[in-house]
Amino acid sequence: MSVGKISGWCWGVFGVMCVAFLPLGYGATRLTSLPVAVRAALVVLVCAGLWWGPFVYAMYLSMAVMRNGDRRLLKRGVRGTARIVHARQTSTVIQAGEFAWQAPYVWKYRLIVTVPGKDPYETDCSICISGLQPGQTVKVAVSPHNRKRVTIDVGQGAAGKRGEAGQGATYPISNVASTRYLNPAASNSAASNWAASNSATSDQARLDALAQLGQLHEQGVLTDAEFTAQKAHILSEP
Questions:
Q1: 109, exposed or middle or buried, with CB in 10 Å at 0-12, 13-18, 19+?
Q2: What is the mean pLDDT of residues 37-50?
Q3: Distances in Å between the alpha carbon of 78 and those of 2, 90, 117, 139, 148?
Q4: Which residues neighbour 1 within 8 Å (Cβ) at sequence distance 6 or greater?
Q5: Phi, psi torsion values for 93, nearest 5 degrees
Q6: pLDDT tens column, 102-124
Q7: Is residue 174 within 8 Å of residue 219, measured between CB atoms?
Q8: Residue 86: which of 50, 51, 126, 55 has the closest Cα?
Q9: Measured between alpha carbons, how far is 230 from 198 in angstroms, rounded to an integer?
Q10: Are 93 and 103 spatial neighbours (Cβ–Cβ below 8 Å)?
Q11: For the segment 222-236, what is each residue's pLDDT rounded down to a tens digit?
């Protein structure tokens, strides 16, 4: 089951429990044949386990998995590649301290995944990465116990180390204008990459690139000099 479906089930269970937790909790307290301690444990299980447990896990999937990619899976998962067959921007944004208009959109990608020793198969990946195109091949990590659970590898580990070193917070990997930016180490050449991959870009795409370049600057990925030079480069492109 993909992360998107797992998240959907979690929110569904949470929604049901918002209505059903009172009847279930009350029913547990009426089981007079059970010891008081057991009845109390059942009430806690209903409230904490069945009600708030799915909510917490759904939030984890949103903030830690869809927002920046599943780093635990990147460390422990099976490495492979995937070809993108469909890309769609959803209407969902995931906020992590910024204003809603700054928050990245969730993109849903349909992938054909290839891992060693297995036949290629299709699955979905919901993640805040923009700019990936159908036909493009990307690196992925696959859960050893759930092959449908896949995360796209765009160098999140390197970004995390940069943040831990005090050189700037880990930036949302979706806040870049092009797939050329997906490696944080390549951020210093953002403008030239933007020009190379968007020779026929529209004015709106240019504005998006400038906004995203500004976010990289604010997050400490680019120095003042690098930001100024790259901004001038983008503006000078026809």
A1: buried
A2: 80
A3: 15, 27, 11, 11, 12
A4: 9, 146, 148, 149
A5: -120, 155
A6: 788 899 999 999 998 889 999 99
A7: no
A8: 126
A9: 15
A10: yes
A11: 677 777 877 777 777
